[in-house]
Amino acid sequence: MTRFDALLDWYSTLSPVTLSQAGDYYHCDAQFKDPFNEVVGVTAIKAVFEHMFSTTENPRFILHDRIKEGQQGLRWLRGRFKISY
Question: Domain segments of the chain: what residues?
Answer without folding.
Answer: 3-81
